[in-house]
Design goal:
- This protein has one helix and seven strands.
- The protein is an alpha+beta fold.
- It has a four-stranded antiparallel β-sheet, with no helix packed on it. Strands 3-4-5 form a three-stranded antiparallel β-sheet, with no helix packed on it.
- Strand 6 and strand 7 (about 105-110) form a beta hairpin.
Length: about 120
């Protein structure tokens, strides 16, 4: 390893450390409701303080969302991997569950959310 290689490696390690330390903290503001979108269009909103079961049937497939104890999670999905069923429940503002095969997004919302955008992807 040459001297310049060492400095390049050191610079990459410092950059990685800085990115890790300066990442935005996850929201701890409790969500008041969830917003469900399918293929970019609003499907509906439901309050998190009322236990309920929501069936989301679309041309892409079917998901069942359960709300209990102030959190929402996908309890049933007919997509191949069922990865959306393994994700952490939505309980805070900004928390999301995504089912890519069904183009479904479940997102925690609150009146007092700061509306800050974490990332923009093109």
């Amino acid at each position: 390893m040459k001297r310049n290689d060492f400095f390049l490696l050191l610079l990459l390690l410092l950059g990685t450390l800085a990115a890790f330390l300066l990442r935005p903290a996850p929201s701890t503001l409790k969500a008041e409701w969830i917003q469900v979108t399918v293929d970019g269009k609003m499907y509906g909103t439901w309050e998190l303080n009322t236990p309920q079961t929501i069936s989301v049937s679309t041309p892409y497939g079917e998901n069942v969302i359960r709300i209990q104890n102030g959190a929402a999670y996908v309890s049933k999905a007919d997509c191949p991997g069922r990865d959306c069923m393994k994700l952490i429940p939505v309980s805070n503002t900004g928390d999301t569950i995504v089912c890519l095969p069904h183009k479904l997004i479940v997102e925690g919302k609150s009146k007092n959310g700061n509306g800050r955008i974490d990332t923009i992807a093109h």
